Amino acid sequence: MSAALLPKPQMRGLLARRMKFHLLGAFLVSMGYATLYKFGIAEPRKQAYADFYRNYDPMKDFEAMKAAGVLESAPPK
């Protein structure tokens, strides 16, 4: 009597139905994290490099390292 009250479990197409749900969820989560990475890490990093090299003078940096004795090929004077 109690067996007739329980619905039969769905066996046919169960994997396909659950796979659609999980693939959609995985896609949305991955796109969300990619967007967060782009705007939270990549863009600020590119901006920091652009700001640094905007006023960077490599000859001034070379002369400072040369004066400090860091470079073996260019001894300090």
Automatic annotation (TrEMBL):
GO biological process: mitochondrial electron transport, cytochrome c to oxygen
Keyword Iron assigned: no
Pathway(s) annotated for this protein in UniProt: Energy metabolism; oxidative phosphorylation
Keywords: Membrane, Mitochondrion, Mitochondrion inner membrane, Transmembrane, Transmembrane helix
GO cellular component: mitochondrial inner membrane; respiratory chain complex IV
Locations listed in the record: Mitochondrion inner membrane
Membrane topology according to the record: Single-pass membrane protein
InterPro entries: Cytochrome_c_oxidase_VIc (IPR051389), Cytochrome_c_oxidase_VIc/VIIs (IPR034884), Cytochrome_c_oxidase_VIc_sf (IPR037169)
Major localization class: mitochondrion
Record text on subunit structure and interactions: Component of the cytochrome c oxidase (complex IV, CIV), a multisubunit enzyme composed of 14 subunits. The complex is composed of a catalytic core of 3 subunits MT-CO1, MT-CO2 and MT-CO3, encoded in the mitochondrial DNA, and 11 supernumerary subunits COX4I, COX5A, COX5B, COX6A, COX6B, COX6C, COX7A, COX7B, COX7C, COX8 and NDUFA4, which are encoded in the nuclear genome.
Family in the record: Belongs to the cytochrome c oxidase subunit 6c family.
Its job: Component of the cytochrome c oxidase, the last enzyme in the mitochondrial electron transport chain which drives oxidative phosphorylation. The respiratory chain contains 3 multisubunit complexes succinate dehydrogenase (complex II, CII), ubiquinol-cytochrome c oxidoreductase (cytochrome b-c1 complex, complex III, CIII) and cytochrome c oxidase (complex IV, CIV), that cooperate to transfer electrons derived from NADH and succinate to molecular oxygen, creating an electrochemical gradient over the inner membrane that drives transmembrane transport and the ATP synthase.
Record's protein name: Cytochrome c oxidase subunit 6C
Species this chain originates from: Taeniopygia guttata
Lineage: Eukaryota, Metazoa, Chordata, Craniata, Vertebrata
